[in-house]
Amino acid sequence: MPSERPIYPFSALVGQERLKRALILNAINPRIGGVLIRGEKGTAKSTAVRGLARLLPHITVVADCPYSCPPDRPAMMCEMCVARLRRGEELPVEERPTRLVELPVAASEDRVVGSLDLEHALTEGQRRFEPGLLAQANRGLLYVDEVNLLDDHLVDVLLDAAAMGVNTVEREGISVSHPARFILVGTMNPEEGELRPQLLDRFGLVVEISGLTDIVGRVEVIERRLAYESDPDAFVVRWRQEEEALAQRIIAARALLPAVTISRGDMAAVAGLALELGVDGHRADLAILETARTHAAWSGRARLTVEDIRLAAELALPHRMRRQPFTEVKLDEARVGQILDRVKGEIGDEAPPSAEYVKKKLTA
């Protein structure tokens, strides 16, 4: 039986720096809220997602748990594992790679969230639950290709689970909940239809990508792909050192992340940026700060810089800015930098902006 072909290395991708940054930041901190990758066919969207999954560290799980519960963290366990612990049972433990779960476009709701056997519950008085894809994805990466072609209700369910870290299934007054903490990545080709703005807003980050436009970059893509197709194993070995270095850096950033502090000045700078750019709601402010602190950890720092906030804004703002029907919003990145420099310079690191400051900026 032929062996499975190795995955194309993440570090071997040419260009697409913003795409790679968004994926890595979500791998470090799933609380960012996932990433939606929008781009035309053949721009390495799926290749990047599958390559990222191979960089994620192995996890320790309860061996016979369908939700991959961590054996040493009761707060993140399912009801069954908690009950076993309370009975004094020794949980079987194993280490395995972080899962990549791919959600098919044609998947039914029961296949995604899981199904309840109502007849068994009524006749036997016991809940019987068949876990779905969200159970498999717990503590892993959930990849939804062509997310714009999914039913809106299913997209809502995915985004709710990603935000809450819990999947709840209710049927005829019977309810089952289980942990569903995962890195959510969606990809789509805008030519095949758009997501509703309400759903778009709930993705933490959105990246617009296109094919490379310089000859040197396109030639490099061709050369690397031909080398991979010719001898996948040798190609993977060639990139092993870069892959290991990237994986270790992700682990280090995860460890540093809890120590990264956000000052009131950072919060005020982000709030001022959102106000001046006319962004509705508060999701953008929170997404920018969560992304910025993650980028600081990725850079090996425990404090934010203006550059962290600027890079975060590039990923978290464009899809949330007000737009006219049938028009595309482009973020003026130079203006973002100017606003942040000015606001940080005016308000410093401690005090939030005054009401007078905000009023003056909004009416200028």
From TrEMBL:
Top-level lineage group: Bacteria
Record-stated family: Belongs to the Mg-chelatase subunits D/I family.
Nucleotide-binding recorded as keyword: yes
Domain called AAA+ ATPase: residue spans: 31-213
Glycoprotein listed as a keyword: no
Molecular-function GO terms, alphabetical: ATP binding; ligase activity
Protein name: Mg-protoporphyrin IX chelatase
UniProt keywords, alphabetically: ATP-binding, Ligase, Nucleotide-binding
UniProt-listed InterPro entries: AAA+_ATPase, CHLI-like, ChlI/MoxR_AAA_lid, Mg_chelatse_chII-like_cat_dom, P-loop_NTPase
